[in-house]
Amino acid sequence: MLQRLVNTSNAMSPSVPLQEMIRAIRSARTQCEERGVIQRECAAIRAQFRQADNGGRSHNLAKLLYVHMLGYPAHFGQMECVRMIASPRYSEKRVGYLGAMMLLDEKQDASLLITNSIKNDLSHSNQYVQSLALCTLACMGSAEMCRDLAPEIDRLLRASNSYIKKKAALCAVHIVRKVHELGELFAPAARSLLAEKNHGVLHGAVVLITELCERNPETLERFRKTVPDLVQIMKGLVISGYSPEHDVAGVSDPFLQVRILRLLRILGRNNEAASDAMNDLLAQVATNTDSTKTVGNAVLYETVLTVLDIKSESGLRVLAVNILGRFLLNNDRNIRYIAMTSLQRIVGTDHNAVQRHRGTIVDCLKDQDASVKRRALELSLALVSATNIRSMMKELLLFLSSCPLELRSQAASGIFNAAERYAPSQRWHIDTILHVLTTAGGDVRDETVPNLIQLITNTSELHCYTVHKLYRALLSDISQQSLVQVACWCIGEYGDLLLRGECQETEPVQVTEDDVLDALETVLQSHMSAPATRGFALTATMKLSTRITDNVDRIRSIVSIYGSCIDVELQQRAVEYNALFKKYDHMRAAVLERMPVIEKNSPGHTNGESTREAVKEVQPAKVKQAETLLPQQPANQVCDLLDLLGGSEEPLQSNPAVGSTVPVLPISTSSTAGGDLLDLLGGLEPTPLTPAPTVTVYEKSGVTLTLSREKQSDSGLTVTLTASNSTDSDISSFTLQAAVPKSVQLHMKAPSGDSLPARGAAKVTQMVVLSNPNKVNLKMRIRISYTSQGSAFQDTVQVDSFPEH
């Protein structure tokens, strides 16, 4: 057969029929053989296109369209399409228009050549020729073609032929999308189409009105008067079985019902009168539609969306939520997914109604589908409240122990936020966080450790219980870095309570000094310990030197070993601690005393996040004792040190290394125990601090951006941009871009992160250095981009003035 095809092609005889070509292509055993068959056939088609008298034009173009469907080039057939569209024969017009829709688009010049042919065919006496022209214009009409032919489409919308009117309505939709201002032309005709009885015409009219209302608020107000007509049409479909010929699985016209419900949702949004007019209808649809079939569920879902989007009655909203609750029990995962997506949107406004389906939502956490599982987690976290915190947290912790790795971080973060907001007691709060750290300590955020340390510090009555529990957790597993860091911190702070062995809240355990030091030394030597974790362990070991009596020499030897550690941070820490043992041993007890209570200045700011954190003052007696030991140093040494970093205008900020538990004390002109520690670096006495002026430059959709002037010189200044998120959902891919006048040089340093946790749990900061040698008026335009709940957002703000000192 292939040989016969080759012979006929080589002889330049008319090419084989379409069926023969398809059979030859399908029988090709290799891709190379298939390309050979297609190339020979395309060569024969080209040759016949060049012939003036070609009786098989439609036959050849049909074969070329099949070649195009296979992905091979067929652009040489574009002009043949133009010629066939101009043919008076319907058979050639049909193939020519089909070829134009497949081979041409609005970007190609050849598409302009068929504009006149389409205009002529729109006035043709044959309805099927008119239909071909309408379909082609709706498929690939450019903006210029739409402007030229819009009057013809408006004329056909008023024709008496229903077949033409439904085609013209869909063509008008394309024209409105291409040229928005032409919508006013079609509005009167679209209104009159609602009086039609033909299903196709009604469907096209509803789609056209929907498009017009979405694009023009004035048109929307005008079409709100059609709500009674739409309600009447919908009632006919629901109650009386308006068009049995369009019945699908027992539901009359589900496609038209869905379209009408979508239009009603647009017309009733933010309008009391329109919403009242459709309340009864929506209740009828919700109660009379069969939910056992897919088409019935489609109509019910659109009904639910309409009820939730308009100003509906409270009872109707409860009915809509109950329908979504039934969807959660459906065997189809797609239906369960869209139900949870819809419930997620309304959980803030109809919280109690959604709470009734809490058990079903929690059961979805066990679903095998990853998408359903993620939606169930988000919805479960949103349903947590003060009344159900214990039961919900039990389910969430159970889910955390077996959830996929990609959901573990989200689950841990949500549990932390819920526990912080609704914890029934401090002990329960601590137990919950420790459970999360034990289960998923490697997937928690960085701020978890300082937040938990602050919580433990503020609950003095639970210090003994917490240190015993963390010590046991440390012995059982040292792979969870966050858990190990908190455990080391607590052992260093409250090691004396651990050694005492008296704890009313838990079983007393006899722990010796050697046992505690062995545990810390295991952390220091483990290959699983991160540098920050070793810093916590070394500091805890050092702190124990003032809380135990018999093993001080062992602690001294452990600290001295790390004086030559390859890790610079750990080495510096060890050298400073060695200096405390040798040169400043009389100060060691005061320097390593228990940390004061850590307070928060504002929500989301912990001791690890704010350098101006308020701390309680040291007892006056200890201040006086240390005052006689510390020599006075010139105050300008601080400025000299800051000058090395680019200017003394920047306030002095304490920046302890990760894992450090040395107390940060208020610095004043009189020496304190904290001042003795500063004396290890040569004696620093800072100048009074003045806060940097801050102004809010952007606040929208829960995202706030502030600008603070850090320092200024003759030729420029340095500003810091700080972003926060007050919404209930996390923000990811957060980026800031800035632009300044051409005469100003801008340098943006690396941001502190690219994600903003929900409810202001953490902030993102970015420093911007502006060089202004010509001293022009400074202006800056900032572009804010981020992703929230799967949707990308972008906005721009202009800063015309900067805060003054």
TrEMBL record:
It is a peripheral membrane protein. Keywords: Cytoplasmic vesicle, Golgi apparatus, Membrane, Protein transport, Transport. GO terms for biological process: axis elongation; central nervous system development; intracellular protein transport; vasculature development; vesicle-mediated transport. It comes from the Eukaryota. Its main location: membrane. It is found in: Cytoplasmic vesicle membrane; Endomembrane system; Golgi apparatus. Pfam families: Adaptin_N (PF01602), Alpha_adaptinC2 (PF02883). Residues 690-803 form the GAE domain. Transmembrane segments: none annotated. One of its GO terms (cellular component) is AP-1 adaptor complex. Belongs to the adaptor complexes large subunit family. This is AP-1 complex subunit gamma. It comes from Acanthochromis polyacanthus (spiny chromis). The lineage of its organism: Eukaryota, Metazoa, Chordata, Craniata, Vertebrata.
